[in-house]
Design goal:
mainly beta; three-stranded antiparallel sheet
């Protein structure tokens, strides 16, 4: 069973801003430049310093890719 990204977001713990990437190549940075997200729902790419960011991404199981019995 495959997993599918349904939300690609992080919260910066320095400035409190939530940054969310909604489509491919949608590169987003918080106002203090400590947290970034990219990729929308196509791929997940994050950048942050340790302990400066909280994950808000969400995944769901993709039953469509499961083989039929």
């Amino acid at each position: 069973m495959a997993r599918r990204l349904t939300r690609n977001a992080r919260r910066c713990l320095r400035c409190g801003e939530v940054v969310e990437s909604r489509h491919v190549h949608d590169y987003r940075v918080c106002r203090c430049c400590a947290t970034m997200v990219d990729g929308g729902l196509c791929y997940a790419r994050w950048g942050f310093k340790p302990n400066d960011s909280e994950p808000l991404y969400e995944w769901e199981d993709d039953d469509e890719t499961a083989p039929a019995l």
